[in-house]
Specification:
This protein has about 300 residues and is mainly α. It has one domain. It contains 14 helices and no strands.
Length: about 300
């Protein structure tokens, strides 16, 4: 087994979260393509690029293991549907001026994971975890009170990704083979969509002479490269460190939304962020204390 290399782990982990955090720039570059169509191509090119990666990085026995366990295939079909819904919501939010809500959703996600662990897996929450979840709930409730409606983009992103992670725990397949299988299961739907939508932007021959066509093709590596970096980083860094690094991506999205794309950060939204940041701070302190006690 390869010895842990923290320096390499930090480089890989930071690379993954910086790429994820800069996704809005990529999706803005293809904003003329409808969100659904972007996801269709993300599925197709991720499936192709993922298959090529599997040929390069061998994962012995993964296919036989899946074929011998139909339950895992069913679970991956469900998780693939969830991640596609997450992708679609995220792309739509970026290209419709809702990046702040997207950022909020990914800040909420760790706390949603804690809550799902309690409600579905029967895990017991420590006192500080209850406080963290409560603070996040206050932040969401404050948004509802001020805006008059649920921040649905934030909640859909947090819940779909939370349930995605939860379901993937039930199918212990390595990340790359798992994602490749998930995307290949969606390929027939993607192809059918293209066949039945002959007026789609990418269905026009002239589209493939534009630079946006290459941006769509790039959806494969753009999706999988940070995932490969992330999984490599987890082999070199403690998972609590990975947990802290994950806040980098929504922070970058928040900064781009306000500074680069001119989204308005209202006082009510800022208050919601403050409550959720406070919850994350409590959650992080609790994680550190728990780790030290175990050691």
């Amino acid at each position: 087994m390869q010895a842990a290399n923290p320096r390499r782990g930090y480089i890989l982990g930071l690379s993954a979260y910086i790429i994820w955090g800069l996704f809005p720039i990529y999706f803005k570059a293809i904003a003329e393509v409808p969100a659904v169509e972007i996801i269709i191509h993300r599925v197709l090119w991720s499936a192709l690029f993922g298959a090529l990666l599997l040929m390069v990085w061998k994962h012995p026995g993964w296919l036989r293991e899946l074929l011998d366990n139909p339950k895992r295939l069913a679970i991956l079909a469900l998780s693939g549907t969830l991640i596609a819904a997450n992708w679609l919501t995220y792309v739509w939010s970026v290209n419709n001026g809702r990046m702040l809500e997207a950022s909020l959703g990914y800040y909420i996600n760790p706390l949603v994971n804690v809550l799902l662990g309690m409600l579905i897996l029967g895990e017991r929450l420590r006192r500080m975890q209850w406080i963290a979840v409560g603070l996040a709930a206050v932040g969401v409730a404050q948004q509802v009170w001020q805006v008059g409606s649920l921040p649905w983009v934030s909640l859909v992103l947090a819940l779909t990704f939370g349930f995605y992670g939860l379901i993937r725990k039930q199918a212990p397949v390595k990340a790359l083979p798992g994602l490749v299988v998930e995307t290949w299961m969606l390929v027939p739907i993607a192809i059918a969509w293209l066949l039945f939508n002959q007026t789609a932007t990418s269905a026009q021959p002239e589209f493939w002479t534009t630079s946006q066509a290459w941006w769509l093709v790039a959806a494969g590596p753009v999706t999988l490269v940070p995932l490969v970096c992330f999984n490599a980083a987890t082999r070199h860094l403690p998972y609590t460190t990975i947990g802290f690094l994950q806040y980098l991506a929504p922070t970058l999205v928040l900064l781009q939304a306000v500074l680069l794309f001119g989204e308005h950060l209202s006082s009510s939204t800022l208050v919601a962020f403050i409550f959720i940041w406070a919850g994350l701070a409590v959650y992080s302190v609790d994680a550190v204390i728990s780790l030290r006690r175990r050691n």
